[in-house]
Amino acid sequence: MIPIEKKISIEQRLSLLVFNVEKEPHIIVDTNRCKKCEQKPCVYVCPAELYKLENGEIIFNYEGCLECGSCRIVCPHDAIKWNYPRGGFGAHFRYG
Amino acid sequence: MEEKFDVIIVGGGPSGLTAGYFLAKAGLNVVILERGNELGNKSMFGGRIYTHALEKNFPEYKKEAPIERWVRKERIVVMDDEKAFTAEFFADTAYKENSFTTYLTKFIQWLGSKAENEGALIATGVRVDSLIIKDGKVVGAKAGEDELYGDYIIIAEGANTLLLESSGLKRKTQPHEVAVGVKEVIRLDEETINNRFNIDSNEGVAAHFLGYASKGMIGGGFMYTMRNEVTLGVVVNLSEPSKAKVAVHDIAEEFRMHPYIKKLLDGGYMLEYSAHIIVEKGPLKENELYGDGYLVVGDAAGFELNTGFTVRGVDFAIESGKIAADAIIKAHERGKNDRTALSTYVKFLKDSFVLRELAAFKKAPKFLLNKRIYTAYPGLILDFLSTIYKVDGTPRRIYDSFKKAKKNKVSLITLIRDLLGAVRSL
Description:
Distance between the termini of chain B: 51 Å
Largest sheet of chain A: 2 strands, antiparallel
Oligomer: heterodimer
Structural class of chain A: alpha+beta
Shape of chain B: globular
Number of strands of chain B: 19
Largest sheet of chain B: 9 strands, mixed
Radius of gyration of chain B: 23 Å
Number of helices of chain A: 4
């Protein structure tokens, strides 16, 4: 539980969830394709802020994924190979 | 491993479990495949279920289902960064058991236990990787090394239609056809919630927010009172954030920090943060809802309806699950599982509220993509009210305030056209 009077960083928000992290990433990003992408919509839509821009390049980490699928749908260059984590892995919601 | 069932259901949410319940009850050999390690822990929604489909299919729900509060107050809140205009609808008895708030996770666990009691086999921790298609007919599901075969396959995979798309049964989802919703669960205590919302312990409030919640993007905000918590969050159409250069995780936080929300939730603690996508484009075409060996139900079929006033999914999921079961039971009696035999599914859907209501609102998705609903009009309402409530000695009649508020936002002709559009589509 985190008191809400102050801002709560995305890392803190994600720390409230139970994750059973898979060793193999369930999402693979071909960052070569990201180089030609101007809009980079993944950066804005991911509710877990897993797509970050560093020196104009996409840095992606699958840990903390909420499995919503938004990034797959918005990617204009088919650069995201998306799957759910294997059965039993990933985020577990208690108050979904 | 290779196994054979009468029916394989992919996805243990409200639609899949309802179908499983009725199929098992009719004596069919049913397996429900769910990727979560427990039922319900991959599912998420804002917080409310309309009861009519439960009344019909599970009349015992009132005693058994995990109901948090009965919704007695409906609020629509138009906000900018510091102002809010609230319209509240309250009826003492008329809408008493129209809808209730709950957690989908818990609701699904209840529905799952009912399906299991009827003899449905629920396999959790199983991710279906692909459908097995032979000569154009869906005959089974592949999960890792396991191949499961069934006479009928029900696709209940939810709004993120990965399986349908990878099997070529639906074209790729486009960003403007769906929204992402994020939800925060805030623990307060029962007494505090009762006092702040002026309700008793069985009563609840449902609120929809327009304007600031989605930062003027196509979307909005929501808030529901649970027994000891309040859920709140934002919904944004996926075509929007990259155009506006606004991040979804940031607006969820700014919504929570808005003075109107902050005062309601003061002293609260965040318990959970989660996300899910929502269908905004309406249902699949009739010929995509079924085919040789398979049916599509619930969110996967696009059975969600947002009118601005009501946001619905679970009632459509339950009814479509029941109708899928009816269609399969009928086809099974005749020993058939081809496309023609399963076309009764669409016929039954058309006779039910599912396709009747969705057809009545078929113009709503396009209308709700009008940006002015989320920017110009909330601004107009709030500027208008700010002007008429402000007393500073300036002679201003009500129409003068309206003209002032409207200036630079929208022309009178556009406004009238949009109003007509609302009448036609909603």
